[in-house]
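protein under study:
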Amino acid sequence: MSAKFVRRLGLLALAFTTFVAVEASRFGAVKAQSDPLAANKKLVQDFVAALNSHDLSLLDSITSDKYVEHNPFTPPDAPPGIDTFKMSASGILAAFPDVVVTIDVILAEGDLVASRHSVKATNKGAFNGIPATNKEVTWTENHLWRIEDGKIVEHWAELNAIGLLTQLGAMPAAK
């Protein structure tokens, strides 16, 4: 084989490899768009992105009018709909203005999405009657989301409240 032929063969192989990589990428993007489980996960990722941006108005486009919030910090007299979550989230954002939520795990099955989050923040304001401590705190959360017709209709949240309250000095540390 001539050197010229080997170079052409190498260029042809490179072009083919590039083509396959581009098409595989495009196929993955198309699959994600047509995959309802991927779409459901994207709704949850968008919800968390809205929290991290502190723009709670972004939640209006991804939640249903029938939205129900099941959250340990939701007051019993909270209004129905996404405003319930916004009220709780506004209190958290006021107490922890630099809050960052990271999705560690996200799984989808049928109309449900489960996610585990790590949260990091600095306590700069009162939180549930606890004065600001200026301490950096971390906690974990577990969430379950129900999706219907491309919108979030229900959300359950459980968080490591004991760990958070201990870090804030509102509870004694375990011995």
